[in-house]
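Notes continue from the previous slide.

Worked example: a multi-chain complex. Inputs as given:
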Amino acid sequence: MKIIVIGATGTIGNAVVNKLKEHHEVIKVGSKSGDYQLDITSPEEIEKMFKSIVNVDAVVSATGSASFKKLEEMTPELNSVAVQSKLLGQINLVLIGQHYLNTNGSFTLTTGVMKDDPIVHGASAAMANGGVASFVKSAAIELKNGIRINAVSPNIVEQSLDKYGSFFAGFTPVPVDRVANAYIKSIEGAQTGQNYNIY
Ligand SMILES: NC(=O)c1ccc[n+]([C@@H]2O[C@H](COP(=O)([O-])OP(=O)(O)OC[C@H]3O[C@@H](n4cnc5c(N)ncnc54)[C@H](OP(=O)(O)O)[C@@H]3O)[C@@H](O)[C@H]2O)c1
C-alpha cells in the first residue's frame, strides 16, 4: 500500500512508520520534517498534498496540538489551538482526502486518553479528542468506495514521560510499540468506525 503518515517524525508517528515501512511505501509528512511538508491547520495545504501525492491507499494522522492550561487560565484563543489543529486539522484531512483516496482505502486519526480519563490542564485536548472520536464513528457509516476510518486513543506513552509525565500522575504508561500496533490493525485490518483505546 502507499501510505501517508502525518506526524511521521513524532514519538508515535515514527513508531508507526517503522512498522509500516517493512511492507508498504510510506510518505512521511510533517510541518518542517519528512518527505513532504504540510501544516494540518490549512485546508488549502491539505488539498495541495492530495493533488501532489497521488494513488494513496491509507492516511495516518499522528499529529494535533492543544494548549495545556488550567481551565481558569484557558481562553478562547488558547482553546482554538486544539480546535484548528487536533480537531479540524484531522477532520479536514478526511473531508478533503475522501475525494482522493483509492477504493478500499483508510484513514486513521489520533485522539487520546484524556477524553475518558480527565487530567488537570486537559480540557481543551479532551474536547478535541472527543470530537474526533465522535466524527470517526459517524463518518464511518457514510464514507464511500469501501473507505474505512478509525481512531487510536493512546494512553501516555512511556517514551513521552519526560515531556508530559508530570501531567499524568498515577497513569500507567504504555509502550509506543503497543500504540503503533493499533494503527497497523486499522490500516491492514477490515474494521471501521472503531476507536482503539490503548490504555
Ligand atoms: N505521546 C503521547 O504520550 C500521546 C498520548 C496520547 C495522545 N497523543 C497524541 O498523539 C499525537 C502525536 O503525539 P506525539 O507525542 O507522537 O507528537 P510529537 O512527538 O510532538 O510529534 C508531532 C509530529 O507532528 C508533526 N507536526 C507538528 N505540527 C504539525 C502541523 N501543524 N502540521 C503537520 N504536522 C505537524 C511534527 O513534525 P514537524 O516538527 O515537522 O512539524 C511531528 O512529526 C498528538 O495528537 C498527541 O496529542 C500522544
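Summary box: The chain is about 40% helix and 15% strand. The pocket of NAP is lined by residues 6-13, 30-33, 38-41, 62-64, 86, 110, 112-113, 154, 156-157, 160, 164 (CB under 6 Å).
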